[in-house]
Amino acid sequence: MSEVLANPLAARDHARRMAGTVVEAMPVLPPIADDLPEEASPADLLWEETIAAGGYATRRLARGARLRLIDVQGDACASLLLFNAEMPTERLNVADTVKIQWNAYIGAGKLLLSDMGRVLMSITEDSAGTHDTFCGASNAATNGAKYGDGSNSGPHPNGRDRLLLGAAKHGLTRRDVHPCVNLFKGTRIEADGTITPLVGPYEPGRSVILRAEMDVIAVIANCPHVLDPRADWTVTPLRATAWRGPVTPAHDAIRNATPEGLRAFENVDDYYRR
Amino acid sequence: MSVDPHLSGLTGTILHDVTVPARAPWLHHVAAGQTLRIVDLEGNQAVDFLLYSAADDAERYSAQDTVAAQGNLFLRQGTVLRSNEGRAMMTIAATSVEYHDTIGGACSCESNTLRYGHHTKAQHACVENFLEANLAEGRGKRDMVSNINFFMNVPVEADGSLGIVDGISAPGLTVDLKAEMDVVVVVSNCPQINNPCNAFNPTPVRMIVAG
């Protein structure tokens, strides 16, 4: 038996020698990002993490915070769940999101709405344009059928099981994993209802910036889109950066873009009137 | 002896047969192998519909898994209604309406404030019905997910525009659902009066279980 296996102090030294190791997919603590937009100060950085291909991450974000997701290599798929952080029974409602905005496709200027008539996050910038509100995440059955295995412990993790683990880190359970939206991988709906997946791969560096309109819990899984037609399980890392920002002011263009959206913001104002 | 046209084609014993009043909820357990027929008695009535596995109600209908598995948004004859675990819960065995919706969700007091204005907040809504029925069996708000709207029409245009438009249903049209597992069916006979889903006039529907 080697020393590191038999001797607890040797095991400790072995563990400690790992300090400072840098890998592709990891959080940076404290957060550092050298490519923040002008309006963001490095002092306001909240989160910098690269989410592995097949991985997940979750974060509580305060009202006003910005979340930037970057599809670093062009083949990420960010399946996103959102909850009201102080009352997680309120969560993203994909049906209300598309119905209330009278449109199925999300992008810059669109709102992600809760089931309580409020806006959880708005999309302030989007250089991707290929997103999906319809298909949700892959699951163990779909990945098992396509790739032979879809388990968390195997080589082809599925989106739903990743979202379940992320939600569980906030004390949430299977009942709480609701329909999600997929960012970076899109769908187009044909006249007969056929769903055409738009999976690229795309040029590296496409990004989406979301603004928290309430205190939210975001859970993000980065697994291949459920309708990805490629035979091989294919996905690349996803970068997440968040920074503090001001609560959306009354004159904000997105807030005032539609009467339905404005009422969603007014319902948020009402919720925080304490 | 008069023949009830709404029972035509159903096989086995009629186990349950009830008319759900306009605007009301309905909950019923349907065993694997049984068939649930929904009759749109007066036409243009949206029937908001959720499903839970009777054995484990954290497994429930998933609109996203259902449409992804068939690669199409519309629910037609042959569509398998899938759970959040990807399993078959029910199959649309027959339908006299070409297709049904599963992207439009359910109306709620809260979403009504966005779609129509705060003057509609006090109106009855499908989520109220879903909650009332589910609470009777210990489920609650966390158990609310995207539902099916039988007899409702939500086309998606090329630019992504969508909206609830005139129903494609008519009086006496039906949909037959065969249970693939033991399920709990929760229905809201939609009370919405602010859009065309019920032709601005909610009406009763009939629920028949045979097997």
From TrEMBL, chain A:
It holds the Pfam family DUF1989. The lineage of its organism: Bacteria, Pseudomonadati, Pseudomonadota, Alphaproteobacteria, Sphingomonadales. This is Urea amidolyase associated protein UAAP1. Residues 49-217 form the DUF1989 domain. It comes from the Bacteria.
From TrEMBL, chain B:
It comes from the Bacteria. Residues 19-184 form the DUF1989 domain. Pfam families: DUF1989 (PF09347). PANTHER family: RE64534P (PTHR31527). This is Urea amidolyase associated protein UAAP2. It comes from Novosphingobium aquae.
